[in-house]
Here is the input.
Amino acid sequence: MENSPDPAPSLLEVRGISKSFGAVRALQEVDFTLRAGEIHALLGENGAGKSTLIKVITGVFPRDAGIVRLGGEEVAPRSAKAALQAGIATVYQEVNLLPNLSVAQNLFLDRQPMRFGIVREGEMRRRAKALLTDFGLDIDVAAALGSYSVAIQHVTAIARAVDLSARVLILDEPTASLDRHEVEILFGIMRQLAKRGIGIVFVSHFLDQVYEISDRITVLRNGRLVGERETASLPRLELIRMMLGRELAETTSARASAGEHRAREVCASFENYGKAGYVAPFNLELRHGEVVGLAGLLGSGRTETARLVFGAERADGGQATVEGAPVRLQSPRDGVRHGFGYCPEERKTDGIVAELTVRENIVLALQAKRGLHRPLSRREQDEIASRYVRMLDIRPPDPERAVGLLSGGNQQKVLLARWLATSPRLLVLDEPTRGIDVGAHAEIIRLIRELCDDGLALLVISSELDEIVTYSDRVVVLRDRAHVEELAGEAIDVGNILAAIAADSVAVALEAHT
Amino acid sequence: MKGLPPVLITAIVLVAGFALCAVQFPNIASTRVVGNLLTDNAFLGIVATGMTFVIISGGIDLSVGSVIGFTTVFVALAIERWGVPPLLAFVAILALSAAFGAAMGAVIHVFDLPPFIVTLAGMFLARGASFLLSTESVPITAPVYSTVSDFALRMPGGGRLTAIAIIMLVIVIGGALLLHLTRFGANVYALGGSRATASLMGVAVGKMTVKIYMLSSLLAGIAGIVFSFYTSAGYSLSAVGVELDTIAAVVIGGTLLTGGQGSVIGTFLGVLIQGLIQTYINFDGTLSSWWTKIATGVLLFAFIALQQGLVALARRPAAKRAGAAT
Ligand SMILES: Nc1ncnc2c1ncn2[C@@H]1O[C@H](COP(=O)(O)OP(=O)(O)OP(=O)(O)O)[C@@H](O)[C@H]1O
Ligand SMILES: [Mg+2]
Here is the structure.
């Protein structure tokens, strides 16, 4: 970006790092160089080894071979604490701070301001407040972190790391649960830090963000270094080829015309459905073979709508109808009984059972649906598991591996497989492509279209407007916990969605002018 | 702050229980009875303080009862048979118990073993060792013992606040300050939230584990000395099963058995509730003292059910707040 042509001195040098987990060779002789004052994107498919490289650098995993130099001196931290002391602060992919501690304690854990051996609670809160203000958050820092949304927890984790980063800041998919506005703020702060000479490593599957923020890019594939480039001189297609090792198949299947869908049968409909203080009453019709996208800012009521539809939250008014018959959706069980599936946003807390194998995780919902007295035979389980492992390209393709050992993106795929295996009539997907690499991303979008063609009704939440536009037959736009607009057919484009999201603020802005 | 609602409930149960007892036996509401209650439960209050740290950090320490037993035997033999000055004997046994706890903590951390198993082994070890030292009860006649036993602060109303009750109160207050006001205390909660996360956030999890079990055993050692003052004897069968009373007091005091939440004050109230039940049974005179166990069991059950309810409740508003805050 605004770097002078003479290369800045290298701050962090990683040479010949190898790391195996049993038979899995997660990293093989990887080199990586971070200069002072640069923002360096570390990219690769799910399972390429990005998170592993980060954990090896910061001493969370011992390394099998290779050296790490920080500011010219060899370092070998043996724990996250040691890495912190050396000046390397990290937000790991599985961020989750400590929900049982207050926000302030989380920010200052193990480095609280002290006087006479006693934590200065007031001073700590004041500093916590100031720190979060930089990130545009004004919350009660004395409250337990667990009482806040995932996004706020994520911002807190980033704020902590930023505050701790003396020389190097590493962010492993920091933007996965942030909305556009929060991403802007984070980028602003990253730029400031870089100006101060701090080196920043940034992992993300959002290529737009990579091009917006990074100076250089390092690509890993299957645990090996593919190459290092200047962002400005690396065309996007070339980058994708580096990551995948092949061309990306054309994915944007044309949407069927809206008229055709008018004739489709209604799968489920919701009339005046809502819950006070949660989502304003809405009307929603979901038809077989149709994708309805839910767009809106974070906190606009998208996830809330999905939870109402599935029965995870009880409506306090309105009527739900499935295949023409009125039904009551009081619990997720009701949802499952009526053939609904729900893939939540937070895979770690709401879905994946880390200790179970890929196979067991995939058949979990199907087994629950059939009831315990009709167990799936091992052969059926194997068959189902290997089908989805193939279909979603879950890597490594071993159904007997514990899900907790898979990379983040692959865990997401397992969760998706679990619901697909129940052959639902209606599938609700909350941010299905979060944390999923470009290759699998395209696969999932293709899959969504295919499922639809088989008659499934889909309700998909996504912050990626381009993506929503690609697969939706109709798009419902939410704002301030209410459904404000429904777009169909030709009207679906990013501009219109943005206009609907922003309509309010534009009105406010206009008022302010007069 | 942390775990306040459960603590409040414990306090209400205690006050209500006390009021009920006082209605039936007006004599209970006197400083004399309260003083005795504190004295009788001094050793329990001390070990329970240590256990609170362990349980909040997500662990458990089953060895404390045996450490108390071993301590009484060691102290009695050292003073009476080996002619060691009492003070030196105390220092030696405290060093020994601290080392014992540190070793258990180290084993738990280094070999990544469940605390339940390691401290269970510690329990057998310490109990076995005390039998090796002596199988019979050894009376202690040293003059310090009678001096300390006679010492007491007079309370208005004729009650006596004995030396061992004072030691217990000091330890409870010290423990509360350590848990709630220091970095060490915050790290204890952090470990209970999630060991893996705490480690990623830079907490020295290994050192913390060693220190926490060391603290628990050290306090069990002090409790053992206090117990020897209380009974003026050392006996290898003393304090059998005390680890369970201790865990019960901690849980009744509102500490989450799964870790991450709780308070020393709550534990102290839990100890008092158990003491109150015992006192009631003594006053009644016709009830078997085993009713204490039954009442404790019922209370435990009620508190665990209550906590599950609170946890479930805490989950619900989380979703609402989540939206409102963005
Ligand atoms: N603790 C572990 N034990 C065994 N295997 C592991 C472990 N952690 C990671 N792996 C394996 O190492 C490989 C690299 O995983 P890593 O998490 O580094 O991928 P990633 O590039 O971060 O992917 P993603 O984009 O999905 O987060 C994967 O094959 C994964 O299954
Ligand atoms: Mg990763």
User: Anything to note?
Assistant: Residues 104 and 126 of chain A are 9 Å apart (CA to CA). Residues A 21, 24, 26, 44, 46-52, 93, 396, 405-410, 437 surround adenosine-5'-triphosphate (ligand 1) (CB under 6 Å). The radius of gyration of chain A is 24 Å. Residues 1-6, 250-262, 505-514 of chain A have pLDDT under 50 and may be disordered.
